[in-house]
Amino acid sequence: MSSREAILSAVKKNQPVESELPELNFPFTSVNLKDTFIRTLTAIGGRVMDVTSWNEIVDNIKATYSTTSQVVNTIQELSADFGSFQRPSNPHDLKEVTVAIMKGDFGVAENGAIWLTDEAMGNQVLPYICEHLVLVINAENIIPTLHEAYERIGNSTYTLGTFLAGPSKTADIEQSLVLGAHGPKSLLVFMITS
Amino acid sequence: MIKTGNTHSELADKFNRDKKRVEWHDETLWFVRVKRDKAALQIPVWEQLREAASQIKNNVLGNLHNYLVQFEKNAQANGIRIHWAADAKEHNEIVHAIIKKHAINHIIKSKSMLTEECGLNEYLENQGIEVIDTDLGERIVQLAHESPSHIVLPCIHWKKEEIGQLFHQHLGTPHGNADPQFLTAAARTHLREHFLKGRVAITGVNFAVAETGEFVVCTNEGNADLGVQLADVHIACMGIEKIIPQRKHLGVFLRLLARSATGQPITTYSSHFQKPRAGQEMHMVLVDNGRSKRLASDDFRNALKCIRCGACFNTCPVYRRSGGHSYHTAIAGPIGSILAPGFDLKKNSDLPFASTLCGSCTNVCPVKIDIHQQLFKWRQAVVKEGHVDLSKKVVLKFTGFVLSHPLIYKLSGTLGRWVLRNLPVITNTRLNTWYKQREMPPAPKQSFNSWYKQNKRV
Amino acid sequence: MNIGLFIPCYIDQLYPQVGIATLELLEKQGLNVTYPANQTCCGQPMANSGFEHYTHTSNKNFIRTFADFDYIVCPSGSCTLHVKEHLYVANRKAQATQIRNKIYELTEFLTDVINLKALNASFPYKVGLHQSCHGLRGLHLAQMSELVAAPFSKPEHLLSMVKGIELISLDRHDECCGFGGTFSIFEEAVSVKMGQDRVADHLNHQAEYITGVDMSCLMHLQGILNRQKSPVKVIHIAEILNADK
What we know:
The complex is a heterotrimer of chains A (194), B (458) and C (245). Chain B is built from 23 helices and 10 strands. With 458 residues, chain B is an alpha/beta fold. A 6-stranded parallel beta sheet of chain B has the order 1-10-7-4-2-3, with helices on both faces. A 4-stranded mixed beta sheet of chain B has the order 8-5-6-9, sandwiched between helices. The longest helix of chain B is centred in the N-terminal third of the chain and has 23 residues, at 19-41. The termini of chain B are far apart. Chain C folds into 2 domains: 2-113, no CATH class; 126-241, Rossmann fold. Chains in contact: A-B, B-C.
């Protein structure tokens, strides 16, 4: 008997009587979603800017990062200023990227996380290998909790989907928080209201 | 029996010789517990979430067979290659075979308690494969040839000065520099080289969804993601109990996991891997290693609900004052003390006793595992199997005898109090463990029982 | 209402004044209290050490002694919890279940059963309340810090009726003292450190007395206080609630 059959038959034999799945119904107290999102993401090391136009985003990016930065952009609206990303054949070619710019699907107020999938990433390594990550989300797309998030994700398919909340970080050395463990050292989020 | 010198109490005794260090260790972990409390308090439905998580996990245990089959089918349809391992040895062999197929001798690995359980690193190193742990804390203990002392905070027992010294030796950082910011930056540079070299990346798994055939890996550092996105081959290793039924259930678990673990609202990265990216190979090894056997036990099955958040470690007053290595097992702390006896009762017969049964663990547990009740039940199992030393047995048998016979109890109490009062040398010796650091209780002339008889005329 | 007084073995032998205070306190409320002299112990020391199978005769003795009372009251959260969770005799299941349902720890009995509204007691000292784990998390005598739930405390509610008392607050308001029965012997180093840390928390907040619902925890803290030659004393909550002089 293969291990597969052995494991499955042991599990079948030993598993207890099945119990019901719970209803998932968790009311949330109504809050100002935008404010909560900004406060939460800021508390975990991200920076959020409330903007009303793409031009504002361009100006802010230019003001924030040095002109010698290697910038990679995957957003069409910003391609005039930051070019448009050509998928490299090898993810290793992205190792020198300073700033990566991409669109997030939506933000979650309770935890400051932004959902993005491989489609928006250009290359799947990009949000992790860049030194600074810039995400743009629509200000209307802030939802209260993860329950609404999964309702929204529904049964969509992706290669990679991720909740990304702040810059990469570690507190492994004596619980001292350090931003920029292996991934981006900073996260800048533009919340655009059009 | 466990070798003398290696029981929890002996190792804890050693740990307690440096009082200042114990206090530092305790305070550091208590700080994490407090952060957890603050995070939980911000969620008014916290207790409902714990209950839902517990019910989902109960449902999983009762329907694990079908969920495993469903997951396998959906994951395979997504292009993930599924392997089944009956035990640690088979798990290690499967992983090794995949690496060998690609003719590689260097792999990178993010945190996986399952691979710790299986002793994967040691196995692969014996096969001539270099394994680089990429989680900062795990890399630190790996450089020091140690095992993690905590499942979420692997090097919580290390002081920054010691890490500075370790990095000075291994990474060439300046002698005496113990700044966490600086040391983390040094590790980033050091590990970045390995990330760029790594063609095979191993990760653990936090959750696998039967309905969608995807799995979720949570990290703060981004090491799992950076590793797998640069590698040609991703191997995910998972215990069979990590399956959850539906994608929407992730909402419950991800709300609980990081808040329980570190007090963060969510980990920085919660990556959902549904398919291999173009040109990449994605493997998943499903490991039993005693889980299906435990599933049969009404008393101990619940431990399989664990989501490895580590909240029970941080809250445990014994763990905080004895350190992870005193548990001499891959998973320390309260949850380790109920998991380890299931693997080897004889070797871990001391662990169910490394607790005051205070019950704090059970009440921080996000999936409501009855940890302290299981500790109690393991104690009964240890004694029944005869893994308890004779002195303890005799003393307790005697106590049981005395306390079940009213007359003998009264006589021995009177005698005992007389000894306490009149012959303190008998009790106040080094042989009396209580007296080493505590005074004996008072020895009144009269018991309550005899006072009652005198004063209430019965 | 016929009340059986259950005095745990170590209180009987080492802290008779706690038994006396409990009895007097209950009688002051006009209750009919009997102390059955043949009682011994709930069996917890054996069971918690893995020897539950040795508790058969002490369980039988417990049932024989207490079966006929309307309520059983005990000045110990830990022993009460043990009876509630583990009292079992194969051929006396019904009696055992009845006892498990009618045994009360003293402060929960005063709060929940007789609904005590006032006390004529006075204790003009700074007092730290040690939350014993079994009373707290097992019997829910107060809200534990682990849960996201409304706070309450039966012991504090009763202590608030005592004149002159000043309850101090602690940094860690419900951490275990490290006694744990035979844990205090077999895990001596950790047990002592836990006890020392608990004591330090009370001392840092200027406690003159440490009180609680379990004399076993207090015995442990007392052993540490006395070794430190501290003037701070331990006192069972029944003694404070009964302090009318």
